Every structure is written in structure tokens, then in C-alpha cells.
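Our consortium's second objective concerns turning raw sequence data into structural hypotheses that experimental partners can test. To show how far this objective has progressed, the report includes one record in full. It was chosen at random from the queue rather than selected for favorable results. The single chain below, 473 residues long, was entered without modification.
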Amino acid sequence: MENLKEKLDRILYPKVVAVVGAKKDTDYRWLVCQGTLKDGKVYAVNIDRSEWPGAEALGFTNVPSLLDIPEDVDYVIVTVPDKVTPVIMKDIVAKRAGGVHFYTAGFSETGTPEGMELEGRLIKMATDAQIPLLGPNCLGIYHPKVGLRQSPDQVSGDGGSFGYLSQSGTQAIGFSMHATASGLSISKSISFGNGGMLDCPDLLEYLAQDEETEIIGMYLEGLRDARRLFKTLKAAAREKPVLVWKVGLTEDSARAAASHTGSQSPPEALWDALMRQCGAVGIRNVEEMVDTAKALLHLPPLPGDRAALLAVSGGHASEMTEAFSRAGFRVPAITEASFAEIASYTSLTGGSFHNPFEGPSIRSEENFFRTLSVLEKDPNIDFIALEVMAGANARAQAALTSRLESVKKAQAQFHKPLAVVFNVSNPLAVVDVNKLARDALEEGTVAFWGMERAARALHNALDYHRQQAWLYS
């Protein structure tokens, strides 16, 4: 499609939105979702006038047809039954709307001749008219900066820097909620479902050029045009980090993916190799997506794989070393000069002093900061990861605040990357670790929940920068 970026800009920054088929029995969901639209107007389009009072009570203007809207329409959301969609598409073409999102399902994902034929009719009508079509069978656009939403639970307001593409609508909503709770804000998120007209490569190319998007995440179930996707992915990953969460890599999950969006998947080994060749980062779950994005967005690039680990106890030091070693990091001994400096201000009894560290060398805030100063200068260390305990009682909260203040002070003075690993001593204590991590991020500190999650995210970030250097140096 010619001028695709310009056409997508029109639907992502709409002045007029039309929602076709919103009904009382779904609480006018799609109208409510767009009710936060800034600097624009939303029309309720419904031939059934019995639905009008409910929409009007919510503040929306009712019309029986798209053609009755007295101004240009930038973005149309269609929620009518599948058999009715060609009639609506005919009006969209006649209105010369900017673009359309079909929430309606019942198309190629069913695997039936009828469903595939119906989808083909919609795509041909949209293609002939050069009108961008999202879906069918998707949740469309979430653009918090302008107030377009996929769910009433999503926040709107200031935009962020994380762009997200998803074949699954529920995964798109779930990721946006998880990211927001963790302190990551969305620039634009697009659920594209069957991808009958606008598929993943089209939208990936758009986000790669989008100035508001600094990092891209994708949830994929299957591929329609693998060759084109990998070509686009390689170009996009050269511009900014691209994190790809691919399901359907096992025999059973591939069958589930095909029944959901009607697309196919490659074998897992082949997929992993292609990710590396493209310079993208393979992701396995939503937590890893969020954690890796935090590491790439908010930490300087790790200069190497040599980690200094600071833990709260001997048992935790061993566990932390195991997690980071399994993730691909080295945990080397510090130099003799560094060891002698630490010995000059603390007892060498009752703790570990070579790497990992725990005990007297980091127990008090004064010793903790001095040890960080030693590690900052040590030539054997590339970055620092430190465990911080989170608890529900007042004493634990005071200790947490004090430790994070020391971290903040160290970040202001030192150059090596420094990451916090939150841990909870009492699993029955009610501690909102996501909130702790979000609050820490707002203060400039990157914090992860748990040792394995931290190690995986940090190694993903290191791997990304190494791949870029290998591919393009």
C-alpha cells in the first residue's frame, strides 16, 4: 500500500472515530474505550435505534449509518456480526474513511471456506479502495497519548516509548497492563489478529520509523509471509531493539495458534537461529518482555559478562550466583587490591568477600557504599547486581528505603551499570513488588523481581548489544 505511514498516522491520530454496532448487552464497550479520545469526536453508528438512548447517556452522538456522519471519518471500529461486515465495508469505502478495525471474528481463523471467502471479500474491498484494514478478529489500537483504547481498564494520558504488536487481543491488553504496572509506558500497541491486509511486517515497519517508539515488542502465534517478516525484522532491529515472543513452537501450541489466527509456525531451532541472524531478541513470556525492555531502555549497555553480585546472606549468594551463571554470566573473583581495600574497613569473618558478596562488607549502608566504590574501580567487574529484601513491616520498609537511597547515590557517582534484584523474605507477606519496581524506576533505579528474571533480562540486553556489534561493526 502506498503512503502506508501516512495512512496509519491518520488512524492512530484520529480526529473523528466511528464505532459501528456498540450495544447495551456489552456495556457499549467500544464506545467507552474511545471515550477518552483527546481533541476528537466519537460517533455511535447503529441502525437499531433502541440502542441510541444508552449511547447518548454516555455522551455520544448517534447516527444510523456511517454516511450520515457530517464530517470526514479517520478511524472506524466495527463490532457487527460477521455476515454484516461487507455491508459496513461498502459504507466505509463510500465514506472514504481513513481506516478500519474489525473486532468481528468468524473469518479465516475458522478454517472454513465460508470464513475464508468472507475475509477475502473484505480485504479486496479495502485493498481496492486503499483503506488500511486491521484484523479481522482483533482488538485494534491502543494509543494512550491520544486516548484510543482496547479495554476500559487501560490507562490513557501521557505516551511512552514501548511499541507493541500482537496477534492476540487479550495478550495485547495483558501486556499493556503488566507494562504499566511495572513502570513501562506504551507508545502504541496494535492487535492485528488475522492480519488479512495489514500483517506484522507492515506494522513493524511503521513502528521502526515511529519517533515516539524506542523499543518494539511483538507477540506472534504464526507467520503468513515468513521471508518478508524476517527481512523487515532485520531492518527494524538495526534501528531499535525488537523483542519477539513467539508461541506455537511446539507441535501442540502450533495447532492452537493455527486455530486462533489461521497462521503457521516454523520449528523452534530454526526460529531461534533466525532471531539471532536478524539481531532480534527471543522472549519466552510477558515478564521477560517487560524485564528485558527495562534493561534496554534504562540501563547503559553492559560492557561485558563479568558480574559482581551482592546478596543478603550466604544461601542467597549461592542461589544468585547459580542464577546468573546459568543465564550465561561469569562471577569472577575481584583483584587482590580490591580485596585488601575491603579488608581495611570490615571484618573478614562471617561473610563472602571475593564475589559474590554478603555479610559485614555490605551490611551497613556505609560499608555497602564503600564496597560499591571498590567494585566500580575493579577491572575484573563489568556490572553490579545487588539483592534488596522487600517486606511488609515497618522495619523492612525502612531498610528498603535506606538501601535504595544508597543505590541512588552510587548511580549518581559511578559509571558501571547497577541493577537491583528485589526478593521477598516471607512469601506470605503482602508486598506489591511491581509497585516497588515501578517506584524505583521513577527514581532512576532499574529493579527486577527475583534472581532468575533479573539474570535473564540482563543477559538478553547484553546479547542484543553483542549481536548488533557483530552484525554491523
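The partners drew two points from this record. Residues 451-472 form the longest helix (22 residues). Residues 160 and 185 are 4 Å apart (CA to CA). Both points have been shared with the crystallography group to help prioritize constructs.
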